[in-house]
Amino acid sequence: SEFAVGKGWNMISVALTVPDYTKDVLYPTSTTDAFKYSGGYQAETVLQNGPGYWLKFGADQLVSMTGAARPTDSITVVAGWNLVGSISNPVSVNTIGEVPPNNVVSSFYKFQAGYQAADSIMPGQGYWVKTNNDGKLALTSSGLMKSGESPMQRLKGLNSLTITDNNGSSQTLYFGSSNNADFSIA
After folding, report:
1. Threshold 0.70, pTM exceeds
2. What mean pLDDT is predicted for residues 49-75?
């Protein structure tokens, strides 16, 4: 499999079951340590399936990785912000199982010239997500969206704030109490 990374910092994850999880074997062209987030950043030389990591590259490129597919995974999260990873197939954020239920209290954010809310968890990428409690996120590549809802429909009833910079790039933040919208997973 090949995973695209950009010049500079990337949020990445190991989406396959690989024979050697050493950072220098998996990402030989990276220019920094891999940083995991657990209440603060920690440099890791041996990576794992499940977490996301920050990793810097000198140029846009495709990273080749050989290993077994991971069609499902259960990712451990803690109360607060988590940097989580992916499986070997795209997963709609609407299909991610939560233990305990309704634990996710933010969008899943990808990093690409700034933070953007993601509608899918893509293989090899990392994502920020905030949870109320310690628990698990269940990712599976065969999930169906809840009753045909789009991610935008789930945001109805929330307040929004859009920030635009001098280059015309904009980001919308949605906020409100949990009473305003149903974020439960079917």
Report:
1. yes
2. 96
